[in-house]
Amino acid sequence: MGGSLSLSCLILERPGRWRIVGLVIVALVLVAPGVPLLSGALGAAGREDLALAGYLGDLGVSALVGLAAAVLGFAVGWPSGVIAGLFRFPGRALLLAILALPLLLPSFLLGLGWSVLGAHLPGPLMFFLDGVPGVILVFFAPACGLTALAALAATLGLGSSRLDAARLAGGERAMIRAALGHAAPVTALAAVLAAVLSLGDPGPGQIFGVRTAAADLLVSFSATYDYQLAGLQCALLALVVLVAAVPLALRLAPVLARATLARSTGRPSRMSRRTAGRVIPFFGLAAGAVVVPAIFLILPVFDGPYLGRAARDLSGTILPTIVFGGGAALLAVVIAVVVAVCAGREERLRKAAVAVAVALFCLPPALPALGAVRIAAAAPHWLDPILRGSAGVCLAQGLRLAPLAVILLLRAWGATSPSWAEAAAVSGVSLKAFLRRVMLPVLAPAMAISGLLVALMAFADVTSVLLLAPPGRSTFALRIFTVMANAPQALVAALCCIYVVVAVAGVAVLFRWGRGTKDEG
């Protein structure tokens, strides 16, 4: 009996067919919501109408906007992240928090802030805050934040011996050049990821009156409820996304797999005045892309007594917001733990899991949401509580955001030691007890961070809630989105102020937990 118990623990460290079977089942579950919509697109493959012709033009505009934002974000975020990883300086933690904030905010909030600023600018300057330039400026903030955080992570992964050798060979400048070269590939991939993610975001285009592919898809479906046309539009958008996402996923997979291994890194050093003078403009651009629109987004709150009404709107939407976000986080974390267990320490499986996760995460949010609508419409009535209620929103959001939790949990699982299972097997500890008493406490911080991150991103998801939420079950972000065109500007500002405060608190908790987990490791 003791031998069988020992073998049960060692299953976690041994290869087996069950690993591949488990990963395939999870992958099929994750892609299931989009299958009915894409299959319906086959019947519309030969359609030639004005809506489809206009959509192709909107798709081209979206691609150009995403590319421009990614290039600008790379130009600013790359040096900013490297410098933040190499040096200590006053306000470093605040800068990193500001860079992470737009990744958790609905993009239309930044668009509203820039539009308020544009209304106070003279005519010639309005060009930079209107139309396509305005949309590029909004997408620049998350692109800059994503590339900066990627460069930061790559720089922190550099061994202290390599940095010391570069400093001894050529001083501080040589060390910075070495770090820039090391971080460039990962940062470039992050910029591509930012461009791809912008293709599925409808918010900024609607703020600045630009017809983008994501916005046109939602508008045309809301007007016609044509599943064939929506499926064809989603297929075209997904095709463009996957053209960039698949190579991106294949390149990122080995990078992220290697990142799960522990590294010996040095502590950031102090920055010289010469370096500080050179990087201040980059830091100013990176932080200004978030701080400036946030200020002008919140300023109108002083024009009227609307904070009380905004608080009532918050109280009326807080329960659905928490339920949708919490349900999505729970589902995503469960899926991520299953993937981490199935992938184990096999490099081939880990790379495959990361590649699939990155590719699925890049798909537009409208694809699984519209697919879930199609499934709910065709499902029997006894499934309505699951597919048409709050559970349906949680399922759609959880499946869409699960790839993010998968990547984080794979890293946490890879940081554990295989000797733990061997020691447990020798001691006769059962698999259930080993998972509950050893692995669960070790993985708990990563599970909590993953869950909070998924919940914050679910809070900001307007597309899924707009399409799937039952009547009267609106989230706070959707409430802002639906009233921003007709409500008094002061009310919109009050609502946005509350949301920004909540997002800042979420970022602070993420940074605190992340720092605590790093210190423990």
Walk me through the structure.
With 521 residues, this protein is an all-alpha fold. The protein has two domains: 1-46 and 304-521, MetI-like (MetI-like fold); 50-303, MetI-like fold (Orthogonal Bundle). It is built from 23 helices and two strands. The chain has helices at residues 2-10, 17-31, 35-41, 50-86, 92-100, 107-118, 123-126, 131-156, 160-199, 203-208, 213-224, 227-259, 273-298, 307-343, 347-362, 366-378, 384-387, 390-414, 419-426, 431-459, 463-468, 476-483, 489-520; strands spanning 87-88, 269-270. It has a two-stranded parallel ribbon. Helix 6 packs across helix 13 (273-298), helix 14 (307-343) packs antiparallel against helix 15 (347-362) and helix 15 (347-362) runs antiparallel to helix 18 (390-414). The protein is globular. It starts with a helix and ends with a helix.
Order of helices and strands: HHHHEHHHHHHHHEHHHHHHHHHHH
Strand order of the largest sheet: 1-2
CATH architecture of the largest domain: Orthogonal Bundle
- Number of separate domains: 2
Going by CATH, the homologous superfamily of the largest domain would be MetI-like
Beta-strand residue fraction: under 5%
Low-confidence stretches: 1-7, 259-265
Using only C-alpha atoms, the radius of gyration works out to 24 Å
Number of strands: 2
Q: Can you summarize the main beta sheet? A: 2 strands, parallel
Class of secondary structure makeup: mainly alpha
